[in-house]
Design brief:
Keywords: Antiport, Cell membrane, Ion transport, Membrane, Transmembrane, Transmembrane helix, Transport
Distance between the termini: 97 Å
Number of helices: 33
CATH topology of one domain: Four Helix Bundle (Hemerythrin (Met), subunit A)
Strand order of the largest sheet: 1-2
Strand content: under 5%
Protein name: Multisubunit sodium/proton antiporter, MrpA subunit
Structural class: mainly alpha
Organism: Stappia indica
Helix content: over 70%
Largest sheet: 2 strands, antiparallel
Subcellular location: Cell membrane; Membrane
Number of strands: 2
CATH architecture of one domain: Up-down Bundle
CATH superfamily of one domain: NADH-ubiquinone/plastoquinone oxidoreductase chain 6, subunit NuoJ
Shape: elongated
Main location: membrane
CATH class of one domain: Mainly Alpha
Length: 796
Amino acid sequence: MSITGPEATFAAVLAPFAAAAIAPFATRLLGANAAWPLAIVPAAIFLFFAGLVPDVAGGASFTPAVDWVPAYGVSFSFYVDGLSTLFALLISGIGTFIILYAGGYLKGHPHQGRFLSFLFLFMGAMLGLVLGNDLITLFIFWELTSITSFLLIGFDHLRAASRRAALQALVVTGGGGLLLLAGFLMIIALTGVSDMATLVAGGDILREQALYPLVLLLVLGGAFTKSAQFPFHFWLPNAMEAPTPVSAFLHSATMVKAGVYLLMRMHPVLGDTAMWTTILPIFGGTTLLVGTLLAVRQTDLKLMLAYTTVASLGLLVMLTGTSWDKAIEGAVLYLLAHSLFKGALFMVAGTIDHEAGTRDVTKLGGLRSAMPITFAAACLAALSMSGLPPFVGFIAKEYLYAGTWGATGANQAVTAVAVIGNALMLVIAAAVALKPFLGPKVETPKHAHEGPVLLFAGPVALSLAGLAAAVMAHATGVYFISPVVSSVLGTATEVEVHLIPGYIGAALILSLVTVALGIVFYLKLEALRAAMARTLAAIGWGPDKGFDQVIAGIVSFSGSFTRLIQGGRMDVYMTLTFLITALALLVPLTLTGNWPSAVPMPDFRFYEWGILAIAVSGLVAVLVAKTRLTAIVSLGIQGFAVAVIFMLFGAPDLSFTQFMVETLSVVILALVMTRLNLRPRDHRPMPQRIVQGAIALGVGVGLAGLLMRITELTFDRSLSDFFESYSRTIAHGRNIVNVILVDFRGFDTFGEIAVVMLAGLCVLALIRVRPKHAREEALDRAAGDEALQKSGEARL
């Protein structure tokens, strides 16, 4: 079965970028109502990918591509299969409600158009990431998500906390992106494959490589930083400084799941090894427990949900790392469930903050009557997060328990971590959904009331979607879960999804244990919160504080190192430059044994000997010059002698250029020297002269040796033949030297012109520096003494 219209995939990925350009103008014209027409863009993308679901569920996939950088084998290509289609549906579907929600949440904000533009850019970057087939294309979209998330997190750029959170997210995820780039480049170098579809179909193409461990660690570096795995988890809760629409989008279906997506995508080619099944479960399980325990400590609704997102990402990484088929089925189900309930709950938290004026759960209560629709949506989403029927979160929990309990090896440890983590997530779900709404009414900073339809449309729709996915469990399994599991495992797999377990087994018993533990923990929530507060206070230091210390250390080291190598002395800079040049010339010639053989005495004509004598006399004149001005003029003698040599050997245009350069150099340098107050003689001590003379001699000997060695080699005419053949036909010029400078090396020539112009501006600035006369300096000293005297009298 074929899928038609691959070009539409390009349109679907590029459409958010077009909407980003339109959003500011639409908001300026329509205000908050602009969210409605703008939401049509992600809705249309959702409908497009929904139309592909039947074919993808039947096992079809396609990889539309166009050449991007053909010289390097880079193509702008996409890979549409079960995994990428599910992510595209989540990004576009949830993104539709996020756009609507942002229209209501930031109504009247002066920069609402800019915010919506950033959201669309972020959406397009995520679509390109999950659909990217070419590894370089995927990486570009990967980094684009880091850049756009930086813009979104730091949207309120006047607040220091927002700027810090944005910088932190960019540094952590951007650093991980560099590791991922190194991993991708190694994969291409080792396998010769640069597209994901071919790579994942290659079986052991990477696992059998000797450098597989290094490739795996580099890929995990990118995935762990992006999906906030311990110890890189700290940036994700701090990203809550962003407006709530960003938090809801970031945590539900987009950037934070990019690392999980990458691990699932590359499981067929990197997974099911000892390193994979050791590293991922350990870090994933640690992240699950750390995230849930830190969530218990919080009282801010968004932070409570943020830390449970960290925990959920850890759960997904742990399950993917087991490489157990049933555990991966549970991971895919939980991926879907988490996207729906977490997006809804974040929007609920934002609505409470927007309408009540606070997110502190200890300062909220009794909002059920004031916000009934929001309360209903919160309850539905919290039930799914708690893993209770009849929601898709319940099915996911059943399947992941069945997958971990029935597996061999370290299944007991994985299962125990999953039970404890899920029980603590039930606590947070209940706290978010019940504490703000139940109990006696608490006076809030704002008069609480139900938000507009733009604010509650998303939570209601997503929470009901979690219910519908469970009620229609069979269709969910056929159309969504089975294709994704097939992509992750690399083999066609059918997953039977049922809402009601057909038997009482270990999974159901573990589920009941989870609920019982969750209820106990919820009743002891205040005690748990106090215990975690004491524990964290005792620990003191953490990764978040460590990040600040690392950044401060880098800044301090950079300052010290800069002061060390950039001391402000030109003679030191020049000495180091020429020393490195001498070493670069002499060391390779010596180590490789490529010094030239003895050069025979040349058979010069008398006038050629005369030109050589003039050049030598110019050198002697430089060395014995009494003043620097005399040395500069004497230096021009050598340049003119070289220009004459060029003319004698049949290069008049090069000779003319040399004459012009030498003339201008001497004139400009002489002009500068006359304007500066310099000593007439060289004041360097003798040891310094000896060292710098030796360096100069080394540069001269190295250059001479290199040039003489080159002249001993057989002349390669391939480049000369190329210029002779194409200068006339391509560049339409008869003077080959001019054609090379203007056409073949046009950008180099342009850069050289820019350098000369910059040097001219610097010379002009130096010329305009006028030294003070003695009388002016005396007046300045007198004025300073008078000011100092008045200051002393004032103190007395």
